[in-house]
Amino acid sequence: MIVLIMATDPICGMFVDEHASNIISSKDGRKYYFCSSTCKLQFEKPEKEMHELRKALIVALPLTIAVFALTYAVKIAYADYIMLVLASIVQFYAGMRFYYGIADAIRNRSANMDTLIAIGTSAAWAYSATITLLPRFFAYGGVYFDTSTVIISLILVGTYMQRIAEEKATNAISSLAALQPKIAHLVDGDKITDVNISGIKIGDILLVKPGETVPTDSKVIEGDSSVDESMITGESMPVSKKNGNSVTGGTINVTGALKVEVTKIGDDTTLAQILRIVRDAASSKVPIQRLADTIASYFVPTVIAISIIAALFWYFAGNVGLNVAFLIFVSVLIIACPCALGIATPAALMVASGKAAKSGILIKSGESLQIANKINVIVMDKTGTLTKGKPEVAAIISAPAYTKDEVLRLAATAEINSEHVIGRAIVEKAVASAIKPEIPDKFEYVQGSGVRAHTPNGINIIVGSRAMFEKEKEEGMWNAMTQQEYAGRTTVIVGVNDKPIGIISLEDMPKADSKEAIGALQKSGKEIWLVTGDNARVANAIATELGIRNVMAEAKPQDKLAKIEELQKQGKLVAMVGDGINDAPALTKANLGIAMGSGTDIAMQAGSIIITGSNMYNIVTAFELGRATMTKIKQNLMWAFGYNIILIPVAAGVLIPVFTTQIYDVLPMLAGAAMAFSSVTVVTNSLLLKIPKRVGKAQINSALS
Description:
By secondary structure, this protein is α+β, with helices and mostly antiparallel strands. It folds into four domains: 15-168 and 283-348 and 633-687, no CATH class; 181-278, Distorted Sandwich (Calcium-transporting ATPase, cytoplasmic transduction domain A), CATH 2.70.150.10; 361-388 and 511-614, Rossmann fold, CATH 3.40.50.1000; 392-507, Calcium-transporting ATPase, cytoplasmic domain N. The chain is 51% helix and 17% strand. The chain has a seven-stranded mixed β-sheet, sandwiched between helices. Strand 24 (574-578), helix 21 (584-589) and strand 25 (592-596) form a beta-alpha-beta unit. The chain starts with 5 loop residues before the first strand and ends with a helix.
């Protein structure tokens, strides 16, 4: 048994047999298959294809007008012979692309859109040419050079308008690609040289001046500045950058000069990965397209069969005469439009993925948008997702014999060598308070509990949980610690020589827009769950602040996974939002994984949608974008299906009993116009897709109250 592997032409949407096709192109490591050389040319060299299209139009339009005038307005001798010459130029010069297309279809052992156009217009031209050159061959007068020339011209005009619309549709992707500058300032000692961006390599030192675009992903080694990352993350406020901070290629250095060391180049850069994701999403399939694909694969041979059957039926059963039967055959061929079916989904996905990327949302596949439209439960991690992911010291409580500054200094001394986020927060607080910690001569990290340190002057310091002070339990301090935890704060005990001397509480503050985003999601009817590894007191405090009613605390990665499976068994479609390594299994298991771009690489790889910054409201936008995109796809498919369902029967003669055969005086030309503009309609409708506007806080609060 032979298994056909069908690809989809990325330009016109027609099915192509991968085994039979020899019209192939590769881009970004991916192989593409085409139904015709014209589609391949548009894919590889759109400017050249557009130039060829313009040349064909420049020839076709004036000659078509002349043929039309000779047919209906100007009566001169030998008019048929003059029209034969003019129509032949239109047919075999301006219309040559359709013959190339039918030749490609024969080589690919398939049928494409050019097949219908070439057969239909060739039939009209050949019939008319025969009557002109051999008038006695047919006893039925009347030539149809106007039909063949007008159809070709209208289709070329429609194709030209479609190309212009498609250029607008790809503007978002093109603007992303244009973010990377062509020139970088290479620093070599005291010498600065302007070099082409393709010539830089990892480890090179570059100078980025104020107002310039960062050439590629790098690390700051000198200077302080603010960097506008809105074109990558969608967040409007510039981000402060200093020594050791990472900067992303394509972002704009706003204030001071920066010296940066190149860390990534070429296809490994953030911008290149974003472009790859956006392009893949634009060419991906969604489940709703399967019906369209199935119909499109049988469409051309079915249309040819209908055109022949309709012509024969009306000729023999309807006694309409050869002329009308011939026009029925041509009209059916020309009016059919599989292109509109083929591009209905890709056009909407191209616009959606491009606009989403400019807002800081990366859609990995079209299927993600269709699933997003159906999600009814959202499971959210806390740290780094709903909260900033960076704890800050909120309060210091000291024993009577110590001051708060002393407690902070000793804690910072113990934590100065720690890589834990709590330790870093304590040290940062000390530095910000102009308190200088000592450098301990011994340091020990106690897994899951805290740290121990020994100073050169003989002091043993402990910073950690209650478990490290079980022998020296102090009731008043324990009660104060409990109160801090009920307030949603993480607390650590500071001890000297095994005795507690104070408490430091830290708070991972919710992101500024977390409450607004949660409110908007709940307003849209989605059930929200907070599932976190934090303790129940902290989890419940954050949930209460943000208005989340469903909470699961102290959850390990396997617990998060189990919760998603439990919800799915209840028949719910579940989205998981997270940013850490421990979220990756849940992100993969969920019907839709949404990874916060500020998190780990593994989490972002597991997510189907990536929020490139820390903007929580972009999660709301992603769901709204899914709804808006699916609406556009359904509208496009409805138009494409409806167009063919209604107009093919009209072309096949269903209106002859009402309007008589005189309808075919204009129907072939109207068919050409309708066919040409059907694809334009689909692309233009896709361009009308908008990124949903942000709902105001007042509106959300009013709706929830």
